[in-house]
Amino acid sequence: MSARSTIADLLWWSVPSSTTEDAKAKTEQLLDKHRIEVIAERDAQIITWLTKKAGEEGTSNKDSRTRATAIYRMADKLSRGAVRPPLSAGPDAIEYAVAFTEDDQDGVQVHSPTESRTEAEARVSRYLDMYPTAHLVQRTVHRSKWTDPATP
Asked: SS3 string of the chain?
């Protein structure tokens, strides 16, 4: 079990919510926000260190200037978010929506994307009155193809 899972298991019960699923989702959101803050602090420390190292290279000869310029560029790219270290990639978030087919149209229509599975399930039940083929679908936030949701 990862440290994140352990913290989530210990923390979710203290998050005010009407349902267990919602409390666990809010806990995951809080942990994601914390992770982003930690990554930003780490990136700031790396940028400071790179800038310091670039200054230590000096400008006495062409090789030193070339190394210093390369290090300054790396610090600049990191500060702009152009370089993301592999550990900065956050976990994939899941997005849920309602999918259905209409009698007069080809293909599947996808409506009302949300991060809340509970909210999407409630929408599916409302859509079923008009669209008997309505069902829940999910995708990762990085805009992958829609798939049927995993069983909770």
From this structure: CCHHHHHHHHHHHHCCCCCHHHHHHHHHHHHHHHHHHHHHHHHHHHHHHHHHHHHHHCCCCHHHHHHHHHHHHHHHHHHHCCCCCHHHCCCCCEEEEEEECCCCCCCCEEEEEECCHHHHHHHHHHHCCCCCCCEEEEEECCCCCCECCCCC
